[in-house]
Amino acid sequence: MGPVLLSDADLDKAAPAAPVALRPTAIQSVDRALTLLELIASAGGDVGLNELAARAELNPSTCHHLLATLAQRGYVAKAPGRRYRLGSRMLAFSQACLRQVDLPQRAAPYLEKINEATGETVHLAILQGDELMTVAKRDARHAVRVDAGTVGKSDAAHATATGKAILAWLPEPEIERIVAARGLRAFTPNTITTFPTLIEELRSVRREGFAMDREEFQPFVVCVGAPIRDLTGAVVGSISASTPVFRATEEHLTLMRAEVVGATRLLSDELGHAAAA
């Protein structure tokens, strides 16, 4: 049985909330629901019911009913321990926004900066449905370069830094759907090929804020990737830098991480993430 939908009057009668400052002409239930979405987006991870209620100045019961409605529509997803994260429906909004802002054009100067600073191949990728797609690329400036371009990556979200940087912030049911559709193909002996191992890897990506591909998609190639966020906080794409393993010293990887993470944060800010946070 699905959640029982209550009216605003029922919610307030059952559980009076602390006063929330409404914008002029705002509809209270809509305003509250949007506040909850903004709080979850800005958290960058799962958020507990009680924390959301406190930050939104809502009674926990009211907060629970609003979240149940949002979950029913796919805008939030339940996580273990009465916690919540953004749902897969937010990705559809993000992709619609991308079609309007032209992500490759907006990302171009950031790709160029990473390429200049590291000298390495740089990729911009998005998840289109369940396919990983490279939508822009800058070639390495070295004589010896890697070619991890657009070919063969549609099934490689689990094996690439760009893919893992996107998957890590999706709800687990959405990850399950993608894996069911695309599988966990072994591109190299280092590729992750089991779902529990992938989930553990994605948790690590969430903690660190960036993803690594250590010869998982191509032998002798190491990549660093980080997510791009939009106004809602949803991950709408990712950027990675790739280097041959013989150049992958700790010093060079530190430079690559700094450049990729810094660029994706600035691009996310440009897309409105900082203003929403």
TrEMBL record:
PROSITE patterns: HTH_ICLR, ICLR_ED. Keywords: DNA-binding, Transcription, Transcription regulation. GO terms for biological process: negative regulation of DNA-templated transcription. One of its GO terms (molecular function) is DNA binding. InterPro entries: GAF-like_dom_sf, HTH_MetabolicPath_Reg, Tscrpt_reg_IclR_C, Tscrpt_reg_IclR_N, WH-like_DNA-bd_sf, WH_DNA-bd_sf. Residues 27-88 form the HTH iclR-type domain. The keyword Nucleotidyltransferase does not apply. Pfam families: HTH_IclR, IclR_C. Residues 89-273 form the IclR-ED domain. SUPFAM superfamilies: GAF domain-like, Winged helix' DNA-binding domain. It comes from the Bacteria. PANTHER family: HELIX-TURN-HELIX TRANSCRIPTIONAL REGULATOR, ICLR FAMILY, HTH-TYPE TRANSCRIPTIONAL REPRESSOR ALLR. This is IclR family transcriptional regulator.
